[in-house]
Structures are given as C-alpha cells and as structure tokens.
Amino acid sequence: MNIAAPQTAREWLAYGIERVKDGYPIKRWSPDTITVGGRCAQLQRETVEGCLNLKENSWEVALLAHEFRKARQGVDRWASDYEQAARKLGLVKTFAESRLGDIFYWPYTAYITVKGKRIPQAYGHTAMNAGVINGKLHVLENSDWAPARRQQQGARLPLGLKAHVYLTPLELLGPPTTVITPTSEMLHDETRIVVPAPRPQLVLPKGWYPTRYPTVDKALTGRYVSIQLDGQEPVVFEVPADRAKELR
C-alpha cells in the first residue's frame, strides 16, 4: 500500500497549513513574504498557489484583484482588492471554524494626505483559517506588527523571530467582515452531493493513526502518523519511508 497524498484542494490546503505549524515555510513563499511586514494579501496568494500547485499569479481571485487595482490606479494589490474580487466571483461563505484554508477579510478605510488634502483609501487585512491550537482558533497571517510584539499578544512564530508570518488567535483580530472559500473548484466540491463508495476496513499497526484535521473528524486518506503529546498539544509525525511496509 502506498502512502497517499491529500486528494482534494481543501485537503492540500489543510496539509500545507499543518506543515507551516510544524515550522516549514510553503515553498512558493517569496523571501519578502516571510521577512517583510504588511504582505498579508501576498501571503494568502502564495499560500493558495503553493498548496494547490497553481502557476504564480494565476489564482482566480488574484487575477481579478489585479483589475480592481488598475481601476483605482494603484501600484500594488491590497487586501481590499482581493475581497472585492472574491465577492465578484461568488466565493463568499458563512463563517465555519472547521474549514481550514478559508480566507478572512477585515476591510477598513484610512486617510492619506496628498497636496494638503486628506483622501480616503480602502485598505484591509486578510488571513487564513489555520485551525484550532490549544482550544483557540488561529489564523495564518503576515502582519506589520513586530514579531516580538505579536508574540506578546499571543501569536505563535512558526518560522522564528525574524519572520513576519504568524499564527495568531482569531480573537485578537475580531470576527472577519468577509469569509471566502479560496477557489471556485473548492466551492463546487463543498456544495455538490457525493455518495462515497464503501471502503474496506484497514487494520493499522499499534501506534499508527490516520492524520485528522483539528476539530473535524475526518482523516487524510492513506497518510498515517505517530502521535505524541507535548503537554496538551499533539505532535504529529509522518510514517518514515523505511516503515511504510508496516501499513501493507
């Protein structure tokens, strides 16, 4: 029996988030996404594209956000551009704690001064549902807060003190204004009715268990791990290749 990879887009996204929790950056993340603050929307784009194996700048939300950016004659895409794009694409969902990979938006207006005039600008912040850690729902975000300050506020620093990538308790940011499912494909997968085929019962060696999502009683098909407790938090290990034969 081979150790299967995650099958659906949602599973791949959740798997990538779990890897980040273990301290591994997603390969698609650019250096400034990791080390420079204020790259919140860029982090979400690169996370979705990296986990789902999409070409750079090909995420449907990012493509449409580019058009909103051009319409306001901006230089960079902001979280507000991404939110408008997601709404236009019909990806808005109701909040569900258990859906790892959902993207949250908090739009806000700030003022800049140009030639003595205060001009309103629609900014915003965005983060990704990273699941429950020690009983609290956390989000994956890039923030312009200093790492030490974010840590004081209760955020975890999966990539260390020099990185602006955080696992932040959602309660610190408050309820999101908008919740989206990342892709149209994912939206379709979650709304259609699927009748699963019967699956033979698999007897596992003692000490090996299916990988399970936090807060959701669903296994990642075919991927088995050893689970040890570090205090109250489970530490998860994939089956080493030289032990995979135990699953046959």
Write a brief caption for the model.
This protein is α+β, with helices and mostly antiparallel strands. It is built from eight helices and nine strands.
Description:
The protein is of the alpha+beta class. The chain is built from eight helices and nine strands. The protein has helices at 9-21, 31-35, 40-51, 60-71, 79-88, 147-152, 170-173, 184-191; strands at 92-93, 103-114, 117-133, 136-142, 165-169, 178-180, 209-212, 219-230, 233-238. A hairpin with a 2-residue loop joins strand 3 (117-133) and strand 4 (136-142). Helix 4 packs across helix 5. The longest helix is centred in the N-terminal third of the chain and has 13 residues, at 9-21. Mean pLDDT is 80; it is low at 212-218 and 226-232.
Strand-helix topology:
Elements: H1 9-21, H2 31-35, H3 40-51, H4 60-71, H5 79-88, E1 92-93, E2 103-114, E3 117-133, E4 136-142, H6 147-152, E5 165-169, H7 170-173, E6 178-180, H8 184-191, E7 209-212, E8 219-230, E9 233-238
Antiparallel strand pairs: 1-6, 2-3, 2-6, 3-4, 4-5, 7-8, 8-9
Helix pairs in contact: 4-5
Low-confidence stretches: 212-218, 226-232
Please give the oligomerization state of what you see: single chain
Distance between the termini: 5 Å
Number of helices: 8
The helix/strand class is: alpha+beta
| Helix-residue proportion | 25-40%
Radius of gyration in whole Å, from Cα?
Answer: 20 Å
Major beta sheet summary? 6 strands, antiparallel
Shape: globular
Strand order of the largest sheet: 1-6-2-3-4-5
Query: What is the tally of beta strands?
Result: 9
Give, in order, the helices and strands: HHHHHEEEEHEHEHEEE
Give average pLDDT, whole number: 80
